[in-house]
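User: quick one - fold this with ribulose-5-phosphate bound?
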Amino acid sequence: MTQDELKALVGQAALQYLTPGEIVGVGTGSTVNKFIEALATIKHQVPGAVSSSEASTARLKAIGIAVLEASEVERIGVYVDGADEIDAGGHMVKGGGAALTREKIVAAQSRRFVCIADESKLVKVLGTFPLPVEVIPMASARLVRQFAALGGLAQVRMKEGSPLVTDNGQHILDVTGLQVADPLAFESQVNQWPGVVTVGVFAHQKASVCLLGTADGVKTLTF
Ligand code: 5RP
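Assistant: Sure. Structure tokens for the protein plus ribulose-5-phosphate:
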């Protein structure tokens, strides 16, 4: 199976975690796009969605699903999103699509986080994928030095020759060279550095379930 087919497989499998009549939280990325395609087939059972990005909002609206503000909804049953890396404990690296802050907000509001990923995303230790960190631009240079002190190389993510600007009007640092052995402690540590909006380690908001697309079908990991 191709990677695209594996993504479609887990996007479809995530439907079984939804409760008819309940608002769903929707993440961002190519795997989530497959989930949104699957969602279109049961849209009459979905009263609305809370979205983690402008990109997913546009796709949800295109299939006729109402998109609500996070502030309009007290509690979301299930949040479905992809990951750049996931470890055996359900801790993830996210933010490859630059939507990590809104993803963490919607995840924090949700009872269950259903991670959908192809098997290439399962790792022993987080850190091979460059770690995305959303930052306030005026803090970038100092934060690059703070990551260097931990042994990481942080670079401002660029788009068409300029720093990429997130949906929140901020920048992204991508950090290579780190091994995140203790995801909970690492997330707590970096989150309190002034100028960090969100670090892309999801340990406090880890997955409850991971649907992993493999050559043998969907493997379900629970945490
Ligand atoms: C976006 C994310 C995505 O979930 C992550 O990048 C995985 O994306 P894809 O499904 O395209 O591999 O965190 O900010």
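One thing worth noting: The longest helix spans residues 3-13.
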